[in-house]
Amino acid sequence: MAFAGPYHLSYQDILVREGTSGIANVRDLKGRRICEVQGSNAAQRVVDERRIDASVVPVATYDECMSMLKSGRIDAITTNDVILAGLAARERGGVRLVNTQFNEQRTGVGMRRGDVEGCERVNRAITDMYQDGTAARLLGKWFGRSGLTLGKVTVPQFEGCS
Predict the structure, then answer these.
(1) Beta strand residue intervals within the chain, DSSP E
(2) For the chain, how big is the Rg over CA atoms in Å?
(3) pLDDT tens per residue, the chain (162 residues)?
(4) Most CB within 10 Å of its CB: which of 17, 61, 85, 113?
(5) Residue 76, SS3?
């Protein structure tokens, strides 16, 4: 498999209950209970790569994480910021994104290996979406009210199609 893009650069982030103080960055997860959905490694990356002494609480779904967060059974959820922004937007209050931005996540388009022409067409379409404002408009539409800091939306640096 090959990849075109990336079409979006995001980061790992932290979602907490509204009113939670003391969690302003990844180091503040020390001694905390952080949720990790089956198939994800985001919380474990905090423990292993960032060397934060936190308790990882494994669950099957993000809905379980959200229920545990809202009830106080966990202190935080950590994963890709756009996933967290979607959860926060769905809740419409009661939770907040920390916007700490660590561990860059590069999201691309999977395609048949060796399809250089197809990859280049996809990269041109991605570039057009950024240059004509479509990417910024869609990010604002879906995540603008979530608390996610979008910053300046620019064309990501492509990996190459060879």
Answers:
(1) 2-17, 33-37, 55-59, 76-80, 95-97, 102-111
(2) 17
(3) 888 998 888 899 999 999 888 999 999 999 999 999 999 999 999 999 999 999 999 999 999 999 999 999 999 999 999 999 999 999 888 999 999 999 988 889 999 999 999 999 999 999 999 999 999 999 889 888 888 887 777 888 888 887
(4) 85
(5) strand
